[in-house]
Design goal:
The protein is of the alpha/beta class and 203 residues long. The protein is built from 7 helices and 7 strands, in the order ααβαβαβαβααβββ.
């Protein structure tokens, strides 16, 4: 049976013992995809970044190494956020980024409505949310749209090649990179994770 990725109880139990884990790809690999877009933002303004479902990833530390301190890490499990603070403090000696308890499918309840971001990222959080069905994923997308600044966009890494094939999605979607999955045998077929760039549509 698949894990109950959409249930908070699953993550509470998991994060009780898990201190660090990277979904689908290392933060370094994901950051290599994000970096050109981040550089484009930073040429015009300091970047305000929202990471959805930060879990026990160290992705936020990569943003800080790039000089980005206006980073808000969101997870609905407080234990995950404590792990994030620990990872930041271990790397830099202090904690300067934000860690906010919020449900990514109800962002308007967890973040002030006027809180806007130039860049929203998630590393397979969309896959966990999708376990609860299309309605939950659309709620997540609507919340992201509401919290994007003008010209802002969302970069999402997913195991699915059709993750955002949804009606009423408030975004135009483009696959900007594919990451090969590990093979058990050389003869295994090529399978890729998809990295999506989502920009608000005009509908």
């Amino acid at each position: 049976m698949p894990a109950d990725f959409e249930k908070q109880s699953y993550w509470h139990e998991r994060f009780a013992s898990e201190t660090s884990f990277e979904w689908l790809a290392s933060s370094q690999s994901f950051m290599s995809i994000i970096e050109p877009y981040l550089q484009a933002i930073c040429r015009e303004r300091p970047a305000s970044i929202l990471q959805l479902g930060s879990g026990t990833s160290d992705l936020q530390n990569y943003f800080r190494r790039k000089g980005c301190l206006d980073v808000t890490n969101v997870d609905y499990e407080p234990l995950a956020l404590e792990r994030g603070r620990q990872l930041e403090k271990a790397a830099f000696g202090d904690v300067r980024m934000k860690y906010v308890v919020a449900d990514v499918t109800q962002l308007d309840n967890g973040l002030p409505r006027d809180c806007k971001f130039n860049l929203v990222v998630d590393k397979s959080t969309v896959d966990a949310v999708s376990c609860a069905g299309e309605t939950a994923l659309l709620r997540m997308a609507t919340g992201v749209r509401n919290h994007l600044a003008d010209g802002g966009f969302w970069i999402s890494l997913s195991y699915s090649s059709a993750r955002f094939a949804l009606e009423q999605l408030p975004f135009d979607v483009e696959v900007v990179a594919k990451i090969p999955t590990p093979k058990l045998k050389a003869s295994d077929p090529d399978v890729y994770y998809s990295c999506y760039l989502l920009r608000p549509n005009m509908n």
